[in-house]
Amino acid sequence: MNIVVPIKSVIDVELNIRVQEGKIAKDGMSYIISKWDENAIEAALQLKEKHGGEVTVVSVGPDRASESLRKALAMGADKAVHVNDPAAEDSDSFGFAKILAKVAQRGPFDLIITGKQAQDTDMGGTGPILAELLGLPQVYNVIKLESDEPSTLKLNRLGHQGQEMVELKLPALIAANDSLNEPRLASLRGIMAAKKKPLDVLKLADLGLSPDEVGAKGARVRTLEFQPPKRRAAGKKFEGDAEEVTRKVMDLLANEAKIFA
Amino acid sequence: MPEVSVFKSDLRELEFALFEQVKLGRLLGKAPFQNLSEADARLILKEAHTFSAEVISPTLRESDRAGCHLTPEGVRVPEALKAVWTQYYANGWNTLTLPESQGGQGAPQVLGAAVGELMSGANTGFYMYPGLSMAAASVIREIGSKAQQELFATKIESGASAGTMVLTEPQAGSDLGLITTKATPQPDGSYLIQGNKIFISGGDHDLAENIVHLVLARIDGASAGTRGLSLFIVPRRRVNPDGSPGAPNDVVCTKVEHKLGINASATCALAFGAEGKCIGWLVGQDGAKSGGQEGEGLRNMFLMMNRARIAVGVQSLSLASTAYLNALAYARTRLQGTPLGDRKSSQGPVAILAHPDVRRMLLEMKSTVEGCRALLYYAAGLEDQAAALEADGKGRGAEQLDYLGLFIPMVKAYLSDSAVHVASLAMQVYGGAGYTAEFPAEQYLRDARIFPIYEGTNGIQALDLVGRKLNQNNGALTKRYLKETAAFLEALKAQKGYTAEGKALARAVAALQEVLGHYLKLGMLGKLDEVALTATRFLEAMAKIVVARLLLEGALAAEPLLKAAKPGSADAQFYQGKIAAARFYARNILPTVPGLCEMITAEDTLALDLPDGGFALGG
Ligand SMILES: Cc1cc2nc3c(=O)[nH]c(=O)nc-3n(C[C@H](O)[C@H](O)[C@H](O)COP(=O)(O)OP(=O)(O)OC[C@H]3O[C@@H](n4cnc5c(N)ncnc54)[C@H](O)[C@@H]3O)c2cc1C
What we know:
heterodimer; A: alpha/beta; Rossmann fold; 9-stranded mixed β-sheet; two-stranded antiparallel ribbon; 7 helices; 24% strand; B: alpha+beta; 19 helices; 55% helix; 11% strand; binds flavin-adenine dinucleotide
């Protein structure tokens, strides 16, 4: 089973993210693999361990994306493709999907696994567009995955009202929820083994794409500015007699927060 | 329920120390470190941090509370540690600095120290098990016979066996010459081992299927004192020809100590050969042939001790660093008091980070931690330079290793004392909350307190420095250090804005040189007890000079980077922090050195002259 996993290198959200002049300040930041993409890698590795085949990780981004790719290789992926082209920067979901589609089409594949959204923009657009461009069936927000034979997946996806159980014939695209699995850590052995694995660096031209199809020029969505989230107001602590406190809290909930309105 | 991780580290700062300060990049990619690039090293650091935070750290509090327990089947460690041990070895973290020929990654020692720093402080007690195991394996690799390497070292390196170092006896602590455990030669070349050892870290546990003890003992008829000691491999269970564990080897844990800290680490009393059936092998001896390693026990043990003393440096730094960063995080959130001169502030209480005295404590911690890191990485880097020189065929590696010897007592003693000091300051920043079990500050302080004691007390380290290292090779090591420092002081003069720091360092160095002259005089007069009396002060003085110079070198490396950074950016603040830490050290910590030196040269012998009864307890 050959699996392609697109991964995005994002700012580590554990750090103090700052907004300067409508843009996210990038100095002093460290980058990690977007967390749902780690679930996607883990799912791909488990399928490979079961059915054999190869896992190829792909990332579109500047130099620093190679660190995320090397981490994915260290986790156990077999090959990496890094699309490193300044013209691809500032792509929207549509642009990224176009690039990823071209990468996927370079070789035969059975399955594409993405995260359900990226951890930085929370947009969730790239995966569905990619499936459309490739004419693939897609199942989103997967929380459980089984596969007795390599041609079919049995999936549980989390919907608004509950779970949906789906049987999916490959080739297809699925998108992982973070409850799908517990991503493995990159081991020291894995990091050293990764050094011997292929990591192809491509330009847009290598994929037959012209610079104005993607990047800011080809984008259909434009980011106007970023704003830091409002600080959450401090909580209130109520002490004293249980009955009295309950009455007070109910009163505040009804009249101040108006949650019953 | 797994606990949240309280371990904090600053990868940015570690990377600065490795790549800007020690300039590790110069060694990577070349023999014997041809296998690693700078990008590899950075990825290794990042993932070591992840392992530490996600796998080790959640066991910190739980394993401290659970402790280790003696059962009829042997010692049981906190349950949570077993999975950590297994994953640590499965992921190959122990193989980082092992040579490629032994299945390792051949990484430099300084990278090993940095990764150790990222792991140890997450749970000091846990990390002692793999740490001591690897130290034991490295001794067997260095001086063991081929068969011993295959039977024992390979097993330790895979995590199937653990390792220990077994020196201390009830009557033999600092003075190992008093060791009475005996070794009786057997016709097949092995020895019967008999004796009682105490305080053995990891002396018994259920993390691995076997434990390989490295035991200091005296062969029947050998001379008294340290010269009669030899080093033996004594497995907990005998080993079959394929290395798998066989019958018990008459090594019994008779007690697990209850103690102040590192409760996850089993500190054991061990009875060797109580039933006369404990078999050991002389390290380095091949089969029944006499191996020529008799009486080399202490020298061999020192091989292990040097590594182990650096390892205490790693433990100390790691713990001090996480204690500082936790205190810093708390200081940002704890609201108390109003800004000075604004008693009626309408703003309400401020974060305690705003208070001058809290800032003083935090910067003292920061500069101490960064100074300790600079010293540790410098020392570990000397070993790597030695390896690089040897690989280059220049053959001057031994010189670097001798030089490293000068710094080892300072690494052990200064870093361990600093860990206690920083952990105590961290608690102070927390106020009352720090004294409670709500926060990790109290455990950090408890765990740190052993560092100045084991692996040779800090008093013994000071004697090693003044009694051996200062005069080694006719004082050549000391001379080299002073010469390098004089050159640095010249360079510092040319640097704008470092006049105060340069003066403070020059004053300290001059005072130290006066002490060296004074020691020479005392030596000629045979007043050795006066040298011994002041050794601890001397070590502190010299270590502070060493640290101050390294920090200032780091500051000079940071200056151009600061100029290149955008004002107000995170980068700029980082470099400002580096420079401030160095300046703070030079202005607030280094100035104690002339005072210490003055105390030494003043020949205050009160503590020697006072009759024992004068200390009181009724005479
Ligand atoms: C938690 C823990 C773990 C340990 N792990 C191990 C281990 O794995 N293996 C092992 O072999 N040992 C281990 N030890 C033992 C440890 O190394 C010794 O406790 C240490 O070396 C000091 O010996 P001692 O306790 O007998 O103290 P003593 O030697 O009795 O020293 C008491 C005091 O006298 C001072 N002193 C003694 N002699 C001199 C001298 N000549 N000049 C100046 N001052 C002197 C010391 O500095 C100290 O302050 C461990 C101890 C502890 C508490």
